[in-house]
Amino acid sequence: MVAFLGTIRPVPYSLRSFANQRLQLSLSRFLISVPRHGFSFSFPKRSIQASLHSESARNSTVAASTGEQSEIIFMGTGTSEGIPRLSCLTDPSQKCSVCRKATEPGSKNRRLNTSILVRFPGSAGMRNVLIDAGKFFYHSALRWFPTYGLRTIDAVIITHSHADAIGGLDDLRDWTNNVQPFIPIYVAKRDFEVMKMTHYYLIDTSVVVPGAAVSSLLFNIIHEEPFIVHDLKITPLPVWHGQGYRSLGYRFGDVCYISDVSDIPEETYPLLKDCELLILDALRPDRSSSTHFGLPRALDEVRKIQPKRTLFTGMMHLMDHEEVNEYLLKLKGTEGLDVQLSYDGLRVPINL
Ligand SMILES: [Zn+2]
Ligand SMILES: [Zn+2]
């Protein structure tokens, strides 16, 4: 373990506007504690706005080709190890048909770490807000950023501090070195404490050898209360992800995203009311694990929450995309449930 050293490099731009936005600097200049009540900000820092604006302008040109429609892009829909599993591909018996199918071009069984990109029109063009950057983030971005004409990452919101949610923070360096000056990260205090160990050099940049380029991240501590990212209200959805371990889902508009959950506390259900689109963890087809919903439990939760539409995510290799979706389709006829598996690269228009 590496101790957090506590010194940081100077922020490369004026902090005056932070004060204007009533943001409280604490711990380091790269850590901002978000007030618990009644704040609103959208990172309008004059000193950097010009440089960001040029990016936004370029980005809006790309966005114009797809309209100004808000949307979700599924960057990854698979469990931590990814699908296909290497151990299945090297198994002499070749008994795992899902992993074999996952190697075929365009297969919906090919899944990287769970993550979504939320795109919505802001005052300075389309905004790209990423939820989680896991250890396969580079590979996800490689597949979908050029394909969908994406360029900036306007913020990253973290669900929890497992490797499949934060392992890609290092890869953000390509953006902050070559696309934009920094990326705001929104993270719960407990997960920030973990990052001090796993990504100590992104927090305490004084340990970085001069001239070496690392991601330039601006950490914002969030609480289990709504916060604003580029004018979009985000409501944390606290859930359990294994006994005693908290993870956060997020609600924006009438979309609820819960990627890592083994139990939903009673106090979170009211936050899920009138959900249009629920994106929910469903690891395996037969049963739940100690840290994730299996499909039967996930379906029970859908019956309880009653969203208009549900897309499952976080599937392991036992979930065959076509077979499971065929089964789920039948539930529409029998129970009126609109439930399907998501897949990497899926684009879903949303209203925010
Ligand atoms: Zn397999
Ligand atoms: Zn996890």
From TrEMBL:
Superkingdom: Eukaryota
SUPFAM superfamilies: Metallo-hydrolase/oxidoreductase (SSF56281)
Chain ranges of the Metallo-beta-lactamase domain: 112-315
Record Pfam families: Lactamase_B_2 (PF12706)
Gene3D superfamilies per the UniProt record, alphabetical: Ribonuclease Z/Hydroxyacylglutathione hydrolase-like (3.60.15.10)
Protein name: Metallo-beta-lactamase domain-containing protein
Organism this protein belongs to: Carnegiea gigantea
